[in-house]
Each structure stands twice: as structure tokens, then as C-alpha cells.
Amino acid sequence: MLAVCAQRGDSDDVGAVLNRTGEQFRVETVTGIDEVVGRLEADTDAFDCLVIGRDLSWPLVRDVLDAVHERRPALPVVVTTDAAATGVAADAIDAGATEVLCWPATEQATLLARRVRTAVSSAVTTTRTLTPSEWTAVFEHVDCGVAIVELSGDDCRYRRCNERLAELAGTSVAEIEGRTPTEAFGPEYGPTIASRYRESVASDEAVSYTVGPESLDGRVFHEAQIRPIGSDGDSETLLVVVREVTSEHERQAELRQSRRRLRALFEHSPDMINVHDAEGRIVETNAQLREMTGYDEATLTDMSVWDLDQAADPERALSLWEGMEPGDRCRSEGEFLCRDGTTFPTEVHIRCLGVDDGERFLAISRDVSDQRERERELQRKNDRLEEFASVVSHDLRNPLQVLRGALDGAAETGDRAHFDRGHRAIDRMEDMITDILALTRQGDAVGELQTVPLAKIVETAWQNLRTDEATLVVETDLQIRASEIRLRQLLENLLRNAVEHAGADTTVRVGTLPDGFYVADDGCGIPAADRDRVFDTQYSTAPNGTGFGLAIVSGIADAHGWQITLTDGEAGGARFEFSGVTIDE
């Protein structure tokens, strides 16, 4: 047995399948037309049958059949083909194949062995001419419409047809035999049919064509094959074979429609999609990926997955893909690099696809920047809630205990000094509650930004402080982009912090920086060892401080996108510098 396949070593090639039958087949496998010719010429009688694998293209199958018929015409040939390869079976029989097996989903070995035995048995049987009655039986019972057509000059008539052809055409044998195509099928179809017959005679070759979607009965598709079979000089004889192919066309139409829908989903998906191979080379992308990253299709298909995804580990990814089977899925988190150099976080879902030319991987990605920001905001709110719970459970108890002690003392002695101590405790609780609300209610939001005069906001914040001895010096005329309410809140806390720590007679200066402003006092400053902690909640060195003032300052600055630097002032006190501020000229 000589088996021909596209590639040796495949467990599904015909040679391997024949070897699994358990029968006494001696199978030799070759690849390509050159090896087929070489083996036939080396030993013409070495093989009882030749089997052609379904992985060969039709042009190569035809070349193999031609080579066999040229060197050993009587050698039986079995051609295997996929169900999707419509028309190949008829073409293979026309080209001289002995048997054609449409490759089944199961029991390939059993069915292939049966076809091989049948082909070899037919070749061994002595060839004889069928009797007229046998020919008539074949003609009448074949599952295709068959007609014998005679062309003589301008005349074209059906000499004979079977019942199946009349059934396919929606008429009777009597209405076809002896008539021209126009007489049999009307002026709408007849001239076209006759022209096909003449085309076959002129080329002296077989002609195939499909009639539809409005075919002879206006409902189904038909495939007609025409072949010249004889000539006596005055007339030509044609064999016409017609079969219904409606289901095949419907499957093809459904497949085309499905492909169009999938292409539309792929291209218009709100998610970013790319297809890459097992080596990580991107082979196709959709519009959303191109729009989000700023790359065009040519640039992306010249990139690898790790060129696009900065978080991808090539070694880990390749190992993961190698272990995936078609249909398997996996998920990862990525960081996509845009054409402008920026990046954004993504959630990537990958599915392994089985395709004809190797594995492909469908990667569906989604920008999760908003989700990450919501997670960070939720974490910040949880942190503030914990801070609030800590203050309520611990820090507010101290002034409450002081108040309770003052009330008890006043009740026992009637001394007004106890009432003064109680009022101070109440004032401290009010300050703490105000600061806590500032942290928990407003969070990190700043709302809509406006152009505001920094000097005016500073002076308003200063007037809200109850101090007569401290001095404010404003040395700026900046117009900045900020939330007026939140900026005033920032300055009030910062100015109060300066007065509380530097003393009631301190001088506070507000001045201009190249990209922002500063607030400085002339107090004793903040030790370098404490500067990393001053913006933490509940950190305070003032006897009556709440510890929230600078935490509020830090949160408002972060919400504006500003950076704070704490350093020494020129007069020896603390200097808070705010940079990254948008300044309007």
C-alpha cells in the first residue's frame, strides 16, 4: 500500500490510520508528487493500491492521479477528503479515482480499510462491458439527475434523461426527452443551459456550474456537470449530471453570515481585542485596541505581546500558552503601552483557538483605570473610617473625661474654674469633630476648578482665625486653578498650625514659587526626624492639637495634584512649599 500525505508523523494521516486497522496492510508513506513518481518508477508493480490523504490540496491530488494513470493505469486509487471540500469527490472520480471517502468523525480506520479492500477487489475482478439492462439500471437508479444531450449544428436536444432529473426540474421525463433546453425549461433558463452545453463542446472539457438561488423550480440550488462523451463528425454527445446542492449552499451561506457577524463583533467590540500566535506575535487587532493605544494596524502587527503589554513576562507567558488546549482560557493583569509613551492598566482574558495553520490566542482586554481608582478611593475611605473610629473610641474620650471631671468638681465645690476647664474640653471636641468631618465628608474630591486669587483667599482664611497678636505678610499676586472652598480650608489649617506651633506673636508669610506658592513662619520649625510624620492623622505636638490639620492639608493638595515639600524657613521656622500648581497669567 502506498499512502500519500502532506506531512509524515501526523497521527491522523492515512498511513498511520491504515496501520491502526489491525489488518495485514504493508503501508509505505510518501509526501509530495516527486516521491510518488519516484516510487512508481522504481517499482511499478510494488503496490496494490494508492491512498491519498485528505490534507493534500486538490491540485496536488489531481497531479498524483495523473502520475498514477500515466505509469500504472490499472492501479486502484482511494482519495480521502473533508466533508467541507464540496465538489472534490466528483472531481476526483472524473480524474480517475477508484473510491472517494469523505473523512468521518469516527471509525476512520474501519471505513478506510473497507474502501481500500473494495478498490483492490474491484481492480482484481476481470473488467467486462455492462449489458444494456445493467446500464439502464445504473441510469435509472443513480441518485443524480442524468441526461444524454445531442448537439447537431444549431440544434440541441435531450436524447434521454432519468426520472431523477425530471424530479429535480419539477417536470416529467416526457417533457424533457426529445426537446430542446428552451422547450423543456422555458425561455428563462433554456438559452443559458444550451450555452453551457456548447461551451463544453467548444473546450472539449468538463464544465460545472451552479443554478440558483432561483433554479429550475425556483426554490433550490442545483449543480450541473457536463462532459463530452462522443462525436460522430455531424453531432456531439454530452453526458449531463445534475444534483441538488441546496443544503451545501445553505451551510455556506450560514457560514458566511456567521463570519460576517463575528467580524462585526470583533471590529466593533467595546473591548480591546488582538489575536496573537504561540510565539507572542500579534497578527490581528480591532478598532478599539487601535484607538485606545494610538497605534495603527501595521504597527501593532509588527509588535509582540510584550511590546504592547509592559507587565507581560515572555518566559511565563510562553510556558502558559504551551500548556493550553483549544478552548482553554486564562486571565492576567496587564499594563498597555500607548504610542505617546503613557500606559494604562488592563484586565486581559485569553482563549486558545484551534486553527488550520497552528494555534492562535484571542486576547480580550479592558481598561481598568477607573476600577483601580475606585478601589483606591474605597481604600482611602476605609482608612478614613478607621481613623474616625479610632478618634471616637480613644481621642474623644480624653476631653469627655475632662468635662465629666469638671462637672463633678463644679458640683462639689461650685468653683467657676471647673466650668472654664469644661468649656475648654468642649472647644477641643468641637475642633476635633470639625476636622474629622473635613476628612470624612469631603474626602479627596475638589469639584470643579476655577481661577482664584491666592492673596484674597489667604486673607479670608486669616480673618477666620481668632488671633490678634500674629502677623500675616502676603507677597504674591498669583491667580491659580483651584477649588476656592478647599483651598481656603487648606490655608486655614496651615495658618492655624503655624500660630499653634510657632506662637501667638508669630509672623506668617505667603509667597510665590516658580510653579506654586509657599507658607512659612518664623517659629522654631519642625525637627527633620518628624517631617515624615507630620502629615499623618492624629500627629500633633501642640498641647490642644487635634492631629488632623496637616493631614487635611495633605489630602487637599493631593486632590489638586500638588506636591508638598516641608523645609526650613528663612527666619528659622517651618516652610511648606506647594509645587505643580496651575498658574493663570
Question: SSE layout and pairings?
Answer:
Layout: E1 2-5, H1 14-19, E2 28-31, H2 32-42, E3 50-52, H3 58-71, E4 77-81, H4 88-94, E5 99-102, H5 108-124, H6 132-141, E6 145-152, E7 155-161, H7 163-169, H8 181-203, E8 207-211, E9 222-231, E10 236-244, H9 246-268, E11 272-277, E12 282-285, H10 287-293, H11 297-300, H12 305-308, H13 314-322, E13 329-337, E14 343-355, E15 358-367, H14 369-395, H15 397-413, H16 416-442, E16 450-453, H17 454-463, E17 471-475, E18 479-482, H18 484-502, E19 507-513, E20 516-521, H19 549-560, E21 563-568, E22 574-579, E23 583-584
What would you say about this model in short?
By secondary structure, this protein is of the alpha+beta class. The protein contains 19 helices and 23 strands.
Tell me the major beta sheet.
5 strands, parallel
Number of strands: 23
Number of helices: 19
Distance between the termini: 91 Å
Q: How much is the average pLDDT? A: 82
* Percent helix: 40-55%
- The computed structural class is alpha+beta
What does the radius of gyration come to?
45 Å
Strand order of the largest sheet: 2-1-3-4-5
Estimated share of beta-strand residues: 15-25%
Using the alpha-carbon principal axes, give the shape. elongated
Low-confidence stretches: 541-546
Task: Tell me what you see in this structure.
The protein is an alpha+beta fold and 585 residues long. Helices cover 43% and strands 24% of the residues. The strands form five sheets. A five-stranded parallel β-sheet has the order 2-1-3-4-5, with helices on both faces. A hairpin with a 2-residue loop joins strand 6 (145-152) and strand 7 (155-161). The longest helix is centred in the middle third of the chain and has 27 residues, at 369-395. The N and C termini lie far apart (91 Å). The model is unreliable at 541-546 (pLDDT under 50).
